[in-house]
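pls design
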């Protein structure tokens, strides 16, 4: 998850720069094409095409159709409502992920994990401070995207029970590349040298961030892994301050504290039988 968080923060900057010149469809297509070339050495090291064979191709297709649609909807929401609202609604995703993981994967969700999720959500809300009001079309789209991302997360966790992280990453690039081919070609414009550089960064980070995420899902429950994604908000805010001089204020610091507290609480492993068992030991 440390690899996921680092690469996702970098891709936020690279994607922003690439989108100054290219359409989102183009960036996503080039990410898949270049990402396949970047992933191939890992595929070869894992045993070649045998390493990405799967008996669950329909689930891979479903996961990536949902994920691609959620990504596209997220950008649509950005054009309809303020960024603060989009971000705050997006980070309801861990709640949907936790519920879906309990219902469909049989994972346990105790009071401590729920409280960790709640602290993270409060931290995000403190940072972005969304305005009050009735739900409009943009907010409903953002909420649907958050649920879509949650479905994608749970499908990744399910897929890692039988398929390797390399296979999950490989089929992500294949399926999303096929989905985005036609819309990207319809509005194609040849990237400049600078845009190619940013797109290459997007491709590397996009490919290996999902590889890291799939590996994390293979080693831990979704209810442990997903709340750590809350850290992406304060880390992105820090990079925005360093790269774009966007202001950090007291609310951001307070939100970071809440997010860190929630993640630490979620990651702690209490001794069986509680503190009394630890003292007796």
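designed seq:
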């Amino acid at each position: 998850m440390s690899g996921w968080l680092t690469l996702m923060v970098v891709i936020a900057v690279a994607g922003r720069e690439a989108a100054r010149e290219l359409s989102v469809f183009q960036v996503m297509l080039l990410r898949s094409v270049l990402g396949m070339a970047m992933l191939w050495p890992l595929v070869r090291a894992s045993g070649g095409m045998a390493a990405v064979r799967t008996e669950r191709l329909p689930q891979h297709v479903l996961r990536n159709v949902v994920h691609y649609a959620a990504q596209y909807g997220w950008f649509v929401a950005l054009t309809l409502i303020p960024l603060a609202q989009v971000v705050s609604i997006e980070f309801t995703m861990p709640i949907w992920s936790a519920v879906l993981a309990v219902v469909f994967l049989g994972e346990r969700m105790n009071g401590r994990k729920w409280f960790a999720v709640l602290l993270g959500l409060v931290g995000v809300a403190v940072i972005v401070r969304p305005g009050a009001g009735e739900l409009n079309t943009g907010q409903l789209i953002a909420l649907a995207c958050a649920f879509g991302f949650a479905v994608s997360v749970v499908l990744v966790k399910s897929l890692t029970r039988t398929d390797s992280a390399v296979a999950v990453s490989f089929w992500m690039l294949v399926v999303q590349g096929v989905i985005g081919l036609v819309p990207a070609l319809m509005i194609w414009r040849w990237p400049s040298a600078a845009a190619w550089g940013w797109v290459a960064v997007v491709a590397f980070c996009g490919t290996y961030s999902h590889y890291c995420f799939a590996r994390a899902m293979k080693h831990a429950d979704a209810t442990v892994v997903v709340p750590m994604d809350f850290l992406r908000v304060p880390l992105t805010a820090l990079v925005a301050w360093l790269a774009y001089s966007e202001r950090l204020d007291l609310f951001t610091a307070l939100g970071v504290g809440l997010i860190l507290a929630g993640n630490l609480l979620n990651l702690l492993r209490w001794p069986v039988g509680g503190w009394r068992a630890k003292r007796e030991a």
